[in-house]
Structures are given as structure tokens and as C-alpha cells.
Amino acid sequence: MAETKDLEALATQVRRDILRMVHQCNSGHPGGSLGCTEFFVALYNEIMELKDGFDMDGKGEDLFFLSNGHISPVWYSILARKGYFPLEELSTFRMINSRLQGHPTTHEGLPGVRVASGSLGQGMSVAIGAALAKKLNKDPHLVFSLHGDGELQEGQNWEAIMYAGSKGVDNLISTIDRNGQQIDGPTEEVMALGNVGAKLATFGWDVLELEDGNDLKAVIGALKEAKSRTGKGKPVAIVMDTVMGHGVDFMMHTHAWHGKAPNDEQLANALAQNPETLGDY
Amino acid sequence: MNNWPMPWPRTRKHWAITNRNPPQMKTYTDQGKQDTRSGFGAGMTELGRTNPRVVSLCADLVGSLKIETFIEENPERFFQTGIAEANMMGIAAGLTIGGYIPFASTFANFATGRVYDQIRQSIAYSGKNVKICASHAGITLGEDGATHQILEDLGLMKMLPGMVVINPCDFNQTKAATLAIAEYEGPVYLRFGRPKVANFTPVDQSFEIGKAVQLQEGSDVTIIATGHLVWESLQAAERLHQQGITADVIDIHTIKPLDEEAILASVAKTGCVVTAEEHNYLGGLGESVSGLLARRYPVPQEFVAVQDTFGESGTPEDLMEKYGINNKAVEKAVLKVLERKAG
To answer: With CB atoms counted within 10 Å of each terminal CB, which end of chain B scores lower, N or C?
Structure first.
């Protein structure tokens, strides 16, 4: 296990990457990306068993699917810093001829990505399919997925949630980023989700509630607990409360930074709150 | 580049005279009426026995898709998703990650329009090796009516970059196509139907994706047909032959990629074309052919297709008659296009 302070340093650097990527192309989604930074740092460094290199089939390793593809900046930063592709490629985010599309795709062959996402609500179905393939292959590794809470308004999720519960897809750990915000405002005002954990449990899932998804130790603990609950006949869900825009004071607790880039002054302010730790790309 | 010679001006008199002694026609025998969906089921049974990578998914229509034998023999390789087609398409995409070849099957209406965005993002754009297997396509679904009679699916699917679109004509060809697409790496839309129709192509034929099959040779008109309209076109060609009109009859089982060379070679010979399909004229085979001809070799074309309307309840035969997609409609279209060619 890595030292917590090293992972904290990585999280700070990932925040800088997110902010600089979004600022450079003057577009993208910093809010959800910043809110899920601890999750990605924990998942890729403490939780998933990964092979060296990348192949599409991913046999013999854990897999991750990002359903809410708009938070691509945090995923790209983690993938680059894990060595899936050169760090300097982060500077091509959302630019012409880049493998780092606005929303993640396989089309340009970016290592680490196994399906396109961005049109919301599709990731859990794909993750279930990959989990079923692992069972057929007698591969004991797990499938992880991440979903926005607003995304749960898409009906396909509930088809997938019903399927996984009904069929006992117990090698799947799906995390819901419960930041309570979506483009038009708070989720409970736009279309109330209510008690997400209770809903998942009713559909036959084993549900963990993670109260502070921006506390790195807590995130690692919840993911480890989730792993220990796999293989017991139920899919496992983590309802993870996070703060959108976490780590940048003026981006926190609002949906305003869901899909908006900071200007030069705002970037300087945000970066000052997240000093360089591992070297900028 | 247009590599084809321009057609010489021909008059009605001219084609009538040239065909005073028309060549012999090939004979096609109905081996016994069968539904093309059963051809799919037979193909799945064989794939279940021969290809361990093939898995099957279905959204509560196992009996309609004729996949009971596959399921009975390979229960661990079948996934019943319930009435949830969007999830089925996503699961199919996921199953490719790990090396499987998913055949996701339901009615054509629910396999395309209902799940277009799932197919677009999770399968086509993601380049997943998913076979979308769509039964009860078109108007010959019959009595269930327009809610279930999709006439837009070929257009929807052919517009997706990288999607192969196949519409075989009978039981034997549907079985052969089912086997062939398992060998092809990439997303495929395979369309077939419910009614029992003539089974006239060879048993255990080889099936080459994207390769047209020439069924009759003639010099006056090219008839390009797909799906259930292939047999109808053969019937029409027989009657036209009795009138001294000979037709190239081409079975285009693959709408995309289109066998452009076969079409251009025939049209260069005949100078006019009739396309025939169980689909809206917008977005179907006819439009693919006209697009090709507009770019490479413009000639008169008539469309035997549904004229931008929804269907309705009825027997398949009555519906094909009312909506103008049977052998009589093909015959009529040929006579019209010949008049236009004669100018």
C-alpha cells in the first residue's frame, strides 16, 4: 500500500491536471471531475488489480467503466499518471486530432478506455456484460463502474440495476457519485432521486453508504469493504457522497462548474489552492 | 471516377426486337415454405455447437426468435434480459470485452429504433463485435400492426459508420448469413422476418458478406432486390420473360457494404433499374442504389418500396398487395422504367 501522503499528493496533482486541461481548451467538466478525484486515486492505486499495458479484453485483471463520461479529465489524468499513455498527451484534451476526446472513446485507440461513454445511462449495462464475460471465462477479477447521480434519471440504469440484482451479478461494484448536482440545478429539484441506497437495495443490491467521498482514507476503506462483499450472490453498490468541485473553494457546493472552464484569473486562484506536487504535464 | 461506358440511347422498339428470342431462364424451386427467423434459429443452433465464443441474448422473445435449441444446448451462454432492450445492447457490448461474440436478438422494431443511441455509442462508435439480430422486420409481421412493423430499420442501421447491414432472402440464406457474421469481426445488423416464404437458395450455401448474388441474367432491366422481395422479383421476372423482357435479377443480401461493382456492371448492360425491398423508400436499399448511380452512372430507377407511410394489421399477402411490395408491383415498376428508358 502506498503512503497516504503520496496518494494525497497525487490527488492534488490530478486536480491541477483537471483544471489546466479544462482551462487550456476552454471547455469540459471540472466540477464532477474534482469531486471524484479521491475515488480515481484510490481505485487505480489501492484497489484494482491491473496488468502491465493495455488490451481490450482485459482478461486476468480488474476492469473499470466510467458511465458519466463527461468527467473524462479526472480519468485521463489518472490514466496518464498510471502510464497508460504519455503525460504530455493531456495537453491535447478536446483538441483536433487528439485521442483525448471530450468524452472517452475507444475510436481513437486511447489505452485504458474500453467503451465510449458520454450519452448517459449506458455504462452499467456494459459493465454487467463485461462481468458476465469474466464469469464465463472463470476469471475471478472484478468489474468496477462509476455513475453520476443525475445520470440515474436515465431509465436504462434501472433496467441494468434490475438485471444485476435479479441475476446476481456479484463480481460488479458500481459506485454512484452522489454529489446532488446536475446541469440545471440540485438533483432533488430537477427530478428527485430520493434515497438512492434504499432503491438499490430494493433491487437486490448490497449497498454501502460512503459519507465523505472526498476523504481518501474513507474511499479506500469503502472500496475494500465493497471488494470483500463480492462473490456473495449480489452486486455491490457504493453510494458515495462527494462535493462537486472539491478542492477549489469557489467551485464547491454549486452546479455552476459542472461544465464550465475557469478563466485565467480563476485558474491561477484554483491552482494556488492546489500547489504542484508531482510535476505538471 | 466513372469507369463505365455511357448507355446508348435505346427505344422501346429496340428492346422489344432484341428480345424476340430471349435466353433461357434459370429455374428456382421452392424447397418448402419456411420463415427466415427459423433460418436464424438453425444458424444459432449450429454456432452453439461449433463456436464456443458465440453467446446469445434475448429480450423475452425466445420462441419468436427460434433460439430454443441454442439455449437448451448452451444454457450458460444464453442471457435472458427481460423486456429491457437498451440494457441488452449494453450487456452485449460488454460481453465482447473478454472475447465473446454476442448475438443480441429481438424484434426489428425493438432492435433498432428503441435502442438507437445504445447501438450508436456502446456498439458502433465503440467498434464492438456485436451481432444485432432482428426478427419480424417490415410489414410482413402482419396482424400485430404498425406498432411492430418497422420500415425504417435499414436506414437507421446503414447510417451508422462501420455497421454492416444484411437482409437475407430465405431460410437457407438466413442460416448461411448467421454463420458468416460470426466469422466477421465488427458490428452487424442482421434482419429477417416472420412469414413462411419460399426457400429457394441452396442448402449449405457459402455466404460472402457484401457480395451480390446474380439469380437471373437479362439485358433489358436490372432488378435489385433484398429480403422477401427477392422471391417476388423472381416471380415478376418470369412473367416479364413471357412478354419478351429479360431481367438481371440481383439478390443484394448485404445493403452495406453495397456490392457497387455488381450493380454498375449490370446497369451498364441494361441501362435501367428497379429496386425492391420491404422498407420505406426513404433510407432503404433503393436509396443506396440511387446514391451510387447518381455518383457513377445515372440511369432511370423505379422504387418498389413502402411510400413513406406506416403499415397496418392484415395478412402478409394482403399487406404486400396494398403497400405495393409484391411481384405484381415489381412487374409494374419494370414496365414503367422501361418506358422511361425508351424516353
So the answer is: N
CA atoms of B172 and B39, how far apart (whole Å): 6
Determine the Cα–Cα distance for residues A172 and A18; give it in Å rounded to an integer: 28
Mean per-residue pLDDT over chain B, rounded: 94
* A-chain residues near B126 (CB < 8 A): 105-107, 115-116
Q: Reply yes or no on whether the pLDDT at B16 is more than 60.
A: no
Number of domains in chain A: 1
Does residue A280 form part of some domain? no
**Is A176 in contact with A149 (CB distance < 8 Å)?**
yes
Q: Calculate helix-pair angle for B171-183, B36-50, nearest 10 degrees.
A: 40
Active-site amino acid positions of B: 85
Q: Which grid coordinates are listed for A212?
A: 465523505
Pairing outcome for strands A181-182 and A185-186? antiparallel
Look at residue A13 in the predicted model and tell me its pLDDT: 98
Give yes or no for A128 touching B (CB within 8 A).
yes
Chain-chain contact of B94 with A132 (C-beta, under 8 angstroms): yes
Let me know if A264 is exposed, middle or buried by CB neighbors in 10 A (0-12, 13-18, 19+).
Answer: exposed
| pLDDT tens track for B68-96 | 999 999 999 999 999 999 999 999 999 99
Are B94 and A128 within 8 A, CB to CB?
yes
Residues of A in contact with B81 (CB under 8 A): 159, 163
The phi and psi torsions of A207 (rounded to 5 degrees) equal -115, 130
Domain that residue A40 falls in: 4-272
DSSP, collapsed to helix, strand or coil, labels residue A225 as helix
Distances (CA, A) of B100 to A133, A143, B164: 7, 16, 18
Chain A nearest C-alpha distance from B129 (Å): 12
CA nearest neighbour of B170 among B202, B144, B138, B140: B202
Percent of chain B's residues with pLDDT above 70: 94
Q: What is the DSSP letter of B122?
A: I
Interface residue A210 vs chain B (CB under 8 A): no
Span B5-31, average pLDDT: 64
Which residue in A231, A238, A239 sits closest to A168, CA to CA? A231
